[in-house]
Structures are given as C-alpha cells and as structure tokens.
Design a protein that fits this description.
Blueprint: H1 3-28, H2 39-44, E1 49-50, H3 63-70, H4 73-96, H5 100-118, E2 120-121, H6 128-142, H7 149-153, H8 157-160, H9 163-168
Parallel strand pairs: 1-2
Length: 170
C-alpha cells in the first residue's frame, strides 16, 4: 500500500469519526441532555455573519427559508431524524470504507446545506462545514483507497455487473 492509500484512509477515518460522533452525540444527548432538534438552529443561527457585521443583523439571504422550514413541525421531525441517521451512517461508512463514494457525496451534500444555512463568515469564508464538505467531496471523487471494505465488496462477482454499485464503491 502506498502513501496515497494511507492518506485517504486517514482522511476517511477522521472525517468519519467526526460525523459519527456528531450523530451519536445527538442520539444519546451527551452534550445537551435534551432530544436533538434543528429547529433552534434554523430559526436563530441561520441569520449569518460577515466580517465586521452587526451580530444582530440578518445577512444570510436564505434565512427566511430556514425559518419557514423550522416552523413546520412535521418536516422538522423528518429533518431531525435524517440529520442524526445521516451523520451516523456517513460516519460508519467512511470509517469502514463501505460505499465510500456515496457516503462522501452524502457528507458533502449535508455540509453544503449546513454551510448555506449557517452562512457564518465572521472569521472568513473558510469554516468547519466547508472543510468537512471539501474532504467528504474529495473522498467521493477519489474513492476509498486500498484500506477499505469497498475493495472486498467490489470483488463480489454479482456486484461487478452493476455499474452504479461499482461507482458507489470507492
């Protein structure tokens, strides 16, 4: 195995652990002690910030959309479930290197949504959501590398005949 495969493994494992911990924290309520909901985030943390902007100013052009979403309890129940399940599933898949391209794509999509909803550029445009999204997107692009269950699954004869499965594997 070469340095590239080891590097991809480290990126996959670290980002996967980040996603998994975030999901488990929400599921087990470690930090808050209360059931997770994204409602407060969507209502109050989606105002955005820009370098030198008034902290009370709404600078996120998508803020109204997120507030409207937060006002729909049925939709929020689905979103809350998807966030927790998604973070755990993406994390586990990336750590194991299973369906790595698909997991990377899902992780990049989730981080893109959070990046737009958060719109926090008070410290510049490079933030945690962007970094997680770029790394997850890179994994989706380059694949899992050699240290992954994808390499084992890809050898299954039945799956070798299904093009979409071959692409989803890293």
């Amino acid at each position: 195995m070469d340095k590239k495969d080891r590097g991809i493994f480290v990126l996959r494992a670290v980002v996967g652990l980040g996603f998994l911990f975030a999901g488990l924290d929400k599921f087990f309520m470690w930090a808050s002690g209360t059931p997770f909901t994204a409602t407060g985030f969507l209502k109050f943390a989606s105002t955005g910030a820009w370098l030198g902007s008034d902290p009370k100013a709404i600078v996120n052009p998508t803020h109204g959309f997120w507030v409207a979403v937060a006002g729909n309890p049925g939709l929020m129940s689905i979103i809350d479930t998807l966030v927790v399940f998604g973070e755990c599933a993406i994390g586990i898949a990336l750590i194991l290197g299973l369906a790595s391209r698909f997991a990377g794509l899902c992780g990049a999509a989730m981080m893109t949504l959070l990046y737009v909803a958060n719109w926090s550029f008070a410290n510049g445009p490079i933030n945690e959501q962007l970094m997680y999204g770029v790394v997850a997107g890179t994994i989706a692009f380059v694949g899992a590398g050699a240290y992954a269950l994808d390499t084992v699954v890809a050898k299954i004869p039945v799956l070798q005949k299904v093009p979409v499965v071959k692409y989803a594997l890293g």
